[in-house]
Design goal:
By secondary structure, the protein is mostly helical. Helix content is about 60%, strand content about 0%. The chain is built from six helices and no strands. It is elongated. The protein starts with a helix and ends in a 12-residue tail after the last helix.
């Protein structure tokens, strides 16, 4: 969805779906490894939830922080203005970075960071 939104020149949706893709991947991994996950949309919180996963995915932390910044302003159109660095709307460059961060290889494995 993120790549599709990017190809349709909808950076807000590209950023939102990139964050959502990583959120769902982390929750699936946590469910498989720990049998549970926190009820949170914060990628960094999900990343730090389980000790084995935290160590295994340490290199994802910066990417998760960057994607976390998109959740509220892109998921809630009436969110407070100024939540995004550099303006109220994600730029095409923001979207391109977000889509790259949630990319997967041909085997379906995340390529983060």
């Amino acid at each position: 969805m993120a790549a599709l939104a990017m190809s349709q020149d909808i950076p807000r949706q590209a950023c939102f779906h990139a964050q959502q893709a990583v959120e769902k991947a982390l929750k699936g991994l946590l469910q498989a490894r720990a049998g549970t996950y926190p009820k949170s949309h914060a990628l960094e919180e999900l990343l730090l939830y389980h000790s084995q996963t935290r160590e295994e995915l340490r290199s994802w932390r910066d990417a998760c922080r960057e994607l976390d910044a998109f959740y509220t302003p892109t998921g809630y159109p009436d969110a407070l203005p100024g939540l995004l660095p550099g303006g109220d709307e994600p730029s095409e460059a923001d979207a391109a970075r977000a889509v790259q961060k949630c990319a997967r290889d041909r085997g379906g494995r995340p390529t983060l960071p």
